[in-house]
Amino acid sequence: MLIAENLQKTYRRHAVEVPVLTRLNLEVRTGEFLSIIGASGSGKSTLLHLLGTLDEPDGGRVLLDGKRIDNLPSRARDRLRNETFGYIFQFYHLLPELTALDNVLMPAYISNSTLGWWRNRARLRHRAEELLEKMGLGHRLKHRPRELSGGEMQRTAIARALLMRPRVLLADEPTGNLDAKAGGEIVHLLRQINREEKVTIVMVTHNTEIVSETDRVVRMAGGMMIEEAPPQPRGPFHPRLAAV
Ligand SMILES: Nc1ncnc2c1ncn2[C@@H]1O[C@H](COP(=O)(O)OP(=O)(O)OP(=O)(O)O)[C@@H](O)[C@H]1O
């Protein structure tokens, strides 16, 4: 459904060129939960930004259901960002002065005209509350981010990403700022969302433990995808450990 074709990206600053993607190809399949791993600086976040139209490639194309999305005019691109993609970041990017509920409603405030928001406000509010409840935060609707734990902030951010019923969730190191337990819970939730809401998920991570929850793992190096391996089984049931 989402295809990166010969993607190229070079950052330029003060006459210094940093080539990040050289000729990157990737196909994300409908409904899958895909992990992207790779060394720091290998271009994982850059790729995620290009897939989600947050940045433009220097060469190559990004296709969604066969249609190019890397060169859309700004209104169409804004709409795609708001309605088709949901974004999850390592540091949550919640607005500190808003409650959890208002943070989740943010995409609706941004996307609707005043009239559209007014007409749909009850439905949207209901959806936001339902999502926060699903994230185990039904008792935190009126809390502000500083009153939430890291895991709770990330779960709020996931609810926000789901508000507009996106088809694709793009998660950039969603567990990078969390301890193992909270991180595990986040990946578990993402897996549940992937199955129940039929959302395709692309997750960038350094955490090789959590990739076992995902359907497929690709590795970036040298500006390309170099490897595709099935996730390793986890826990005490790993055959090698079980044999000991
Ligand atoms: N806006 C920018 N301007 C200049 N260079 C950049 C910019 N963004 C990223 N880079 C450089 O591009 C390279 C790839 O960065 P990117 O963040 O995509 O890698 P990454 O694999 O996600 O790294 P990490 O795992 O550390 O987050 C790095 O060398 C980085 O310094």
UniProtKB/TrEMBL annotation:
<keyword id="KW-0547">Nucleotide-binding</keyword>
<protein>
    <submittedName>
        <fullName>ABC transporter ATP-binding protein</fullName>
    </submittedName>
</protein>
<dbReference type="GO" id="GO:0016887">
    <property type="term" value="F:ATP hydrolysis activity"/>
</dbReference>
<dbReference type="Pfam" id="PF00005">
    <property type="entry name" value="ABC_tran"/>
</dbReference>
<feature type="domain" description="ABC transporter">
    <location>
        <begin position="2"/>
        <end position="244"/>
    </location>
</feature>
<keyword id="KW-0067">ATP-binding</keyword>
<dbReference type="GO" id="GO:0005524">
    <property type="term" value="F:ATP binding"/>
</dbReference>
<dbReference type="InterPro" id="IPR015854">
    <property type="entry name" value="ABC_transpr_LolD-like"/>
</dbReference>
<dbReference type="InterPro" id="IPR003593">
    <property type="entry name" value="AAA+_ATPase"/>
</dbReference>
<dbReference type="GO" id="GO:0005886">
    <property type="term" value="C:plasma membrane"/>
</dbReference>
<dbReference type="GO" id="GO:0098796">
    <property type="term" value="C:membrane protein complex"/>
</dbReference>
<dbReference type="GO" id="GO:0022857">
    <property type="term" value="F:transmembrane transporter activity"/>
</dbReference>
<dbReference type="InterPro" id="IPR003439">
    <property type="entry name" value="ABC_transporter-like_ATP-bd"/>
</dbReference>
<comment type="similarity">
    <text>Belongs to the ABC transporter superfamily. Macrolide exporter (TC 3.A.1.122) family.</text>
</comment>
<keyword id="KW-0813">Transport</keyword>
<dbReference type="InterPro" id="IPR027417">
    <property type="entry name" value="P-loop_NTPase"/>
</dbReference>
<dbReference type="InterPro" id="IPR017911">
    <property type="entry name" value="MacB-like_ATP-bd"/>
</dbReference>
